[in-house]
Amino acid sequence: MAPPSSLLRSLLARSQVGGALLARPAAATTGRTFATKASKAGDDDTPFEVDVAPFQVHKLESFPEPKVETTKKEVLAFFRDLFRMRRMEIAADVLYKGKFIRGFCHLYDGQEAVCVGMEASINYEDAIITSYRDHCTYLGRGGNIYEVVAELLGRKDGCSRGIGGSMHMYLRENNFYGGNGIVGAQVPLGVGIAFQQKYNKKRNCTFTMYGDGAANQGQGFEALNIAALWDLPVVYVCENNHFGMGTAGTSYEGVEKRTLRPVPPNPDSPIRPQTLINQELADRRSPKMEKSSRAD
After folding, report:
1. Is 70 exceeded by the pLDDT of residue 13?
2. DSSP letter string over 82-128?
3. Which of 10, 153, 204, 269 has its CA 20 to 30 A from that of 67?
């Protein structure tokens, strides 16, 4: 079997990631590497509107606009970012199954749009803290594929010098605070980061990311209460993939119907409202859960 370095280069080459991304940078990234709005005139810079999926809101009097304005250049840049993330995670999956990556390996494929969309609206002065599913979030903060994979392989060129592994990737200069292995533990830490932003009178905010499996953690509610009492600049971002590790959300969520009001959908949009998706998931409840509900 090929050594890890040659295997990695082969995988990334077939993934069309590009050889330039394999080169370790001489210095830390200072500028944004992700998509930004185009400034030059041209066909790729002509703005157009796109329908988005209907929003669901809670206790809001006004709704976000169901249309957004973008350009062909911006959309293609988003796609390239998404594609790089997906191919990197697929390569990591192959390395893990080949036993080149030891220990844990929490992949992010299927959730890349959360990171790319969020990064398109903020800058590196804003802070992000996330869970153990952090490979692509590290890329979004200005890291590169070489550093991610080197970290996964336990090499000193990794973003945490090879001792952090899959769950502990950091980029302090761009305000990325990991990469936290304990379920839900990053939520109160994110509130603490937001506290120092307010204390130091910074005009930025912190994005505290967690999964739906961590949404039942008591520490999350306690930190949310403190954030509200002290009016801290923190945004809770729940990456709901409908699974807590290997357990479906319908098996660990006691409330099926959430107190959300759906925005009236656009009848001409091909995108299905989230309410229909939630109903389909609820309809697929296990027989054991149905039997328990009938018994109650």
Report:
1. no
2. HHHHHHHHHHHHHHHHTT-S-S-----TT-HHHHHHHHTT--TTSEE
3. 204
- Helix 112-119 / helix 72-97 crossing angle, nearest 10 deg: 140
- Which H or E run contains 56? strand 56-57
Question: Which residues 6+ apart lie within 8 Å of 65 measured at CB?
Answer: none
- In angstroms, rounded to a whole number, what is the distance separating the alpha carbons of residues 58 and 150? 42
Instruction: Give the Cβ contact number of residue 64 at 10 Å.
Output: 12
Q: Which stretch of 4-8, 27-31, 109-113, 247-251 has the lowest confidence by average pLDDT?
A: 27-31
Nearest CA to 119 out of 237, 254, 200, 217 is that of 237
Q: At what angle do helices 145-152 and 4-14 cross, to 10 degrees?
A: 140
Query: What would the pLDDT profile of 165-191 be if each residue is shown by its tens digit?
Result: 999 999 999 999 988 988 889 999 999
CB atoms under 10 Å from CB of 236, counted, come to: 17
Cβ pair 160, 152 in contact under 8 A: no
E strands, 167-246, in order: 206-211, 234-239, 243-244
* 126, 245 Cβ separation under 8 angstroms: no
**63/60 Cα distance (integer angstroms):** 7
For 29, 35, 79, 129, 192, the CA distances from 73, given in Å and listed in that order, are 23, 9, 10, 29, 37
In terms of Cα–Cα distance, which of 258, 252, 244, 250 is closest to 280?
Answer: 250
> Do residues 237 and 209 touch, judged by C-beta distance below 8 A?
yes
- Rounded to whole angstroms, the Cα distance separating 158 from 9 reads 16
- Choose among 49, 66, 48: nearest CA to 57: 66
